[in-house]
Design goal:
The complex is a heterodimer.
Chain A (H helix, E strand, L loop, with lengths): L73 H10 L7 H24 L6 H4 L2 H7 L1 H24 L1
Helix pairs in contact in A: 1-2, 4-5
Chain B lengths: L2 E6 L2 E5 L13 E10 L3 H5 L16 E8 L11 E4 L2 E2 L5 H4 L18 E2 L16 E4 L7 E2 L6 H6 L3 H11 L7 E5 L3 H12 L4 E6 L2 H10 L3 E4 L6 H8 L5 E6 L9 H9 L8 H9 E9 L12 H7 L2 E4 L4 H13 L11 E4 L3 H9 L8 E4 L5
Parallel strand pairs in B: 10-11, 10-13, 11-12, 13-14, 14-15, 16-17
Antiparallel strand pairs in B: 1-2, 3-4, 3-8, 3-17, 4-5, 5-9, 6-7
Helix pairs in contact in B: 4-5, 4-11, 7-9
Classes of the chains: A mainly alpha, B alpha/beta.
Chain lengths: ~160, ~375
């Protein structure tokens, strides 16, 4: 143990959890008699799958409970189904899911418009807060955006 | 009902037309949310870095509320109970829950085996809607949720669902010995709490490294520690070596995760091009700044693919790396003792209270680190 000659009396509770045997999670894992017996536990009641749930191919089936919001659909859904053919160890699994996320962003816009809702992008990206708390940053972004667009237009016209 | 609705990277809105959650399993409860937080790890979702974050989902894994309905199997909760709900969804029966690894439950996330179910944290974490809403479905309601003791403030309670346990476990996993020098990378809410908790384990010196000046000022006071801005240091690793007799820190804690600043290479490959699972600058520094035979404790969140870190130095220096999602349920009794005794003041880190209707502004403020924001609480009923 190191010398701790410094005075820590100003810190409420200094060293109070220093005994590892008195700390709830040390060691992190509580060994039990079931450690090496595989999936032997009595499984909780199975939640009925009322929508399509994709599951990792690194497990035999669904877990006892799962979330049901936003089941796979559309083009992004097909990409997600493709992704789940690959294990979590495979980069393709994750890259396909990221691609699906980006595709679904456009599907979400289309769904909004189909339902008659025109999304307020300015509000959704927190535009009001940016203007209130960082007006200089907003001006900088606008100036840079205008400059980039101007340069692109000028370059296209030269061709 | 009113709920946060994710529309794509950097785009969220408060939606009044979200369907009410319903009991889908006999162990479920429906909770009316009274407070929820935006977590630093929610920003990884918000920035589009977590695969399988579906448009239309509701984030939020830090929340407290009132039980509105229970499934037929639920015995420990009743309608009207005030509950704090750990961010982990855990069955209490699998071999991992049996070992009190409640963050690693094997019966709550069909989409990935590497992580247990987490409220509102993408389909990679089970596809559950989160608590940034008026109501939320809580599976395994007999296992995770805890009735909030009468003497515990609900502002403290909501921070006991993730921030405090994760910060505490970061310090705990580090195996701090009395007198140890502990370096915490990151002065966000988790880093602040890790620094605070390091003293409870007898740390001799606690140093926090970040680049956001107002957060460094905050942590210096809140956690009574040293705090340094890496932008003003030539090389943070070299600085730590120099300030520890050229040996390195006994313990380094990565409380940043996949959106670390400080290295152009990591930022470009990890955050911009997504060629790795985020930017691993903090972990890189932690490995290089810890002394030989030391411990690196990771609670920062990384993506599921891979990161470029100096693994050769881990071997050559004989470093122990310990990491996990916090096992909230296991830690709660001890942490409540600490809150009662005044050793930890969770609500002291709250800087913003925002009506849920203004969730898009709240996310932007937290993400862009505006208005000296440390921790934001969303209040679903604030405008009623």
């Amino acid at each position: 143990m190191k010398k701790t000659e410094k005075d820590y009396s100003h810190i409420n509770g200094w060293g109070i959890d220093q005994n590892p045997l008195d700390v709830p999670a040390y060691p992190m894992k509580h060994r039990t008699e079931n450690d090496n017996k595989g999936m032997i536990w009595e499984r909780p009641t199975q939640q009925p799958a009322t929508v399509e749930i994709l599951h990792s191919n690194e497990r035999p089936g669904l877990t006892a409970v799962f979330g049901t919001p936003v089941p796979p659909s559309g083009i992004s859904g097909n990409i997600r189904r493709f992704a789940f053919k690959y294990s979590e160890s495979h980069a393709l699994h994750w890259l396909a899911l990221l691609l699906a996320d980006r595709v679904q962003m456009f599907e979400g816009l289309a769904d909004d418009l189909k339902s008659g809702h025109v999304p307020n992008i300015y509000s959704e990206v927190g535009g009001r807060a940016a203007l209130k708390h960082n007006p200089a940053g907003v001006v900088r972004k606008v100036v840079i955006s205008v400059a980039v667009v101007t340069l692109v237009v000028a370059w296209l016209r030269r061709k | 009902m009113l709920a946060m609705n994710y529309r794509g990277p950097y785009r969220v809105r408060a939606d009044r037309n979200k369907s009410m959650p319903r009991i889908e399993h006999s162990g479920d409860a429906i909770v009316r949310v009274t407070r929820s937080c935006i977590c630093g790890s929610d920003l990884h979702l918000y920035h589009g870095l977590v695969p399988d974050t579906r448009v239309g989902t509701t984030f939020g894994h830090e929340f407290v509320g009132v039980v509105e309905e229970v499934g037929s199997e639920v015995k420990n909760l009743k309608v009207g109970d005030n509950v704090l709900v750990p961010f982990n969804i855990s069955c209490g029966k699998c071999v991992f829950c049996e070992q009190e690894l409640y963050g690693n439950c094997h019966e709550s996330n069909p989409e990935a085996t590497a992580v247990g179910g987490i409220f509102g944290y993408s389909h990679t974490a089970g596809g559950y809607d989160g608590g940034q809403a008026e109501y939320v479905r809580v599976p395994y309601a007999d296992i995770g949720p805890m009735i909030i003791p009468e003497d515990i403030d609900h502002d403290d309670a909501v921070l006991l669902t993730d921030v405090v346990p994760t910060g505490y476990q970061a310090a705990e996993m580090a195996g701090i010995k009395p007198g140890d020098t502990v370096v915490v990378f990151g002065a966000g809410p988790i880093g602040i709490m890790a620094a605070k908790c390091a003293w409870l384990f007898g740390a001799g010196r606690v140093i926090v490294i970040d680049h956001i000046e107002y957060r460094l000022e905050f942590v210096k006071k809140y956690a009574q520690c040293e705090a340094y801005n890496f932008r003003s240091l030539e090389d943070p690793v070299l600085f730590i070596k120099k300030t520890t007799d050229w040996l390195g820190a006994d313990v380094c804690i990565d409380a940043v995760g996949c959106e670390a600043a400080g290295s152009a290479f990591q930022t470009i490959t990890g955050r911009k091009l997504m060629l790795q699972a985020g930017s691993a600058t903090a972990l890189h520094w932690a490995i290089n700044a810890v002394k030989k035979g030391g411990v690196v404790s990771i609670v920062g969140v990384y993506g599921p693919t891979g990161n470029i870190i100096p693994i050769g130095n881990v071997v050559n220096k004989g470093i122990t790396i310990r990491a996990n999602q916090a096992s909230v349920k296991r830690l709660l009794p001890r942490l409540i003792e600490h809150v009662r005794a005044g050793r930890i003041d969770p609500k002291g880190i709250i800087t913003h209270r925002v009506p849920l209707e203004e969730v898009s502004d709240a996310y932007h403020i937290f993400s862009a680190k505006l208005d000296n924001c440390i921790k934001t609480i969303l209040i679903p009923s604030a405008r009623k």
